[in-house]
Amino acid sequence: xxxxxxxxxPKHLKPRPADDAALGFGDIYTDHMFKLDYYxxxxxxxxxxxxxxxxxxxxxxxxxxxxxxxxGLKCYRHxxxxxxxxxxxxxxxxxxxxxERMAIPLFxxxxxxxxxxxxxxxxxxxxxxxTESTLYIRPxxxxxxxxxxxxPAREYLLFIIMGPVGPYYPEGFAPVKIYVEPHYTxxxxxGLGAVKAGxxxxxxxxxxxxxxxxxxxxxxxLDAVSHRFVEEVGSMNMFFIVDGTLVTAPLSGTIxxxxxxxxxxxxxxxxxxxCEERGITMEELMETQKNGRLTECFGSGTxxxxxxxxxxxxxxxxxxxxxxxxxxxxxxxxxxxxxxxxGTLPDRRGWVEFVE
Length: 356
Ligand code: COI
Prior knowledge:
The chain is built from eight helices and 18 strands. With 356 residues, the chain is an alpha+beta fold. A hairpin with a 5-residue loop joins strand 5 (73-77) and strand 6.
């Protein structure tokens, strides 16, 4: 399908952020967006248009039944100036599985990647050139059909927006304080936990807000049945270093299959670090923390890449992980991943895809 392009008039182009070093997360957007409509049983009219508000009927189904999914990936500026995406095909594959789970009609992943690259060619000058800053890309699908019966919509809008971002957490790469959530849960088996449905994130807000009021940056979610097994941290996958081995929860249906998670495991393996995907309970974590075997802990995700955890608070006790600072394995994995993403280290695994 041919992608139609309608450019923003030069006099309407937005002012660029004055300082890449001062960028936060998720407040600034580029001049254009990609759009694709679904109606009469097919996805139609791929196009790039000026970024702008959407017009939605108040009865649009997404507003009532949350039939929406999204993705998150980044574009990096390499030292030679080229623009690079990191494993974008994995994001579009996961976008498909999220859509499938939310009864959204499937789309052509190749067309979306092509649309994204065209969009990046137009708005590429928005990609920051400073190492901690990137262009965050947010593909999203919403059910637009005006209808209030509970059933899958028959009309959708798929769009891709992008914006320059700095660190996800104000702490940056500094260790964060985590509250182990004793009551609320993020996901149940058979539910939405393994896909990027907006509803997962909406459902996490109250508990996260209550923890924030107690001074914690994020929550550690436990499994919904026994409340013993560690699942995710905030909106990230969780890793521990126990006896020098990297441990993370298995993809058992309640965990998001993070692309950063998969990359961390591959990079760790290449560095000679043993990696185990297995259930890990809070009892085991407390025990290994007390006898000095739990040395490091971090979350992984596209937005924050790797976020070291300094403190875990569980049942009125606070545990300091390792020295409470950034552990050596966490640092090594971060340097390796960020090096590949920004093109300062070689990409031996074919993860980087250039916009050209
Ligand atoms: C990520 O870590 O990439 C996320 O999923 C966070 C995002 C929802 C802002």
